[in-house]
Amino acid sequence: MANTSSAKKAERGSRRKSVFTSRRKKAMKDSVKDVSKLVVGKKAAEAAAMLPALYQAIDKAAKHGTIKKNTAARMKSRLTKQVAALAK
């Protein structure tokens, strides 16, 4: 438990930020899951249509520091590769 007033203020800010971070992380994970399900179901056209939303969610998470930039690039690369393999 925070003792000083500045520590209490920092804790409030931290709680608020964690709400935004968890929202961003959940949106990203949900997008990844949706595309992965479409890839497993061999629905290439639908998966390709979902990629822009996936990119947006991942890029937002990387922009705000929820995940690192290289992690975002790796995730996008791997999922794009899977969708492209389905299209062939």
Summarize the structure in short:
The protein is mainly alpha-helical. It contains three helices and no strands. It has a single domain, classed as Methane Monooxygenase Hydroxylase, Chain G, domain 1 (Up-down Bundle), CATH 1.20.58.
Task: Please give a structural write-up.
Helix content is 85%, strand content 0%. The mean pLDDT is 96. It has a single domain, classed as Up-down Bundle (Methane Monooxygenase Hydroxylase, Chain G, domain 1), CATH 1.20.58. Helix 1 runs antiparallel to helix 2 and helix 1 packs parallel to helix 3.
Key terms for this structure?
0% strand, Methane Monooxygenase Hydroxylase, Chain G, domain 1, 3 helices, 88 residues, elongated, mainly alpha
Topology:
Elements: H1 5-40, H2 44-63, H3 69-87
Helix pairs in contact: 1-2, 1-3, 2-3
The averaged pLDDT comes out at: 96
Query: How many helix segments?
Result: 3
CATH class: Mainly Alpha
* Low-confidence runs of at least 5 consecutive residues: none
The helix/strand class is mainly alpha
Radius of gyration: 17 Å
**Quaternary form:** single chain
CATH fold descriptor: Methane Monooxygenase Hydroxylase, Chain G, domain 1
Helical fraction: over 70%
User: Helix-strand pattern, N to C?
Assistant: HHH
Would you identify the CATH architecture? Up-down Bundle
